Amino acid sequence: MSTTADLAATIRELVHANRILAHEGVVDAFGHVSVRHPHDPQRYLLACSRSPAIVTAADIMEFTLEGEAVDARGRRPYAERPIHGAVYEMRPDVNAVVHNHAYEVVPFSVSGAATLRAITHVSAVIGATVPVWDIRDKFGDTNLLVVTMAQGRDLAATLGGGRVALMRGHGCVVAGGTVRAAVNTAIYLRVNAMLQQQAMQLGDPQFLSSGEIERCVELQLSALALDRAWEYWSARAGCSAL
Ligand SMILES: [Zn+2]
Question: What is the whole-number distance in angstroms between the Cα of residue 170 and the centre of ligand 1?
């Protein structure tokens, strides 16, 4: 594939990721998904400031890891882009980042008593423990948005080597090796939150063991599973018409 075709394919997949996350209820008016630039690891691609439900290829902007737009052409960027740059900066293995405020996930960011844990095989990708980052710990009273690189780096430190970190009273950040892996994890993070809340109403849920998580993740992040899920979500979101 030529480099131009390669970039066009990456942008196309990113647009589909936006539509899929919106259709699956992971993002609404807010939330975003980015991908590391296929030709320059020091840059990433992210839509301009609009709902993922209506993002098109013309909305995709290029940023340095510090969050500077390379060629804005009058488009306004998301305020919370430091989330993306800081994760790419710290994690060379990460090539896609999702930030969202899924309603089902937020309760687990504010309840010290109920920690989000993998409850079913398809959501094993969220990991054995999901850390919670609190912006107030280091930055005091804010509007809770991650708008500086210092805040983004602090959040990335809480994410550590994992795929998911919750953000207290706000939402979460999800990291993946590919766009498909990050979208998959973001969707099943929300599913896990719903199932865990239901299971907790019935009693003490039995969570996946670390050995089960390891085996399930291997399967769930295989090309076979990721491609099958992607085909399904793409069809539901009407991506072929884009
Ligand atoms: Zn946010």
Answer: 6
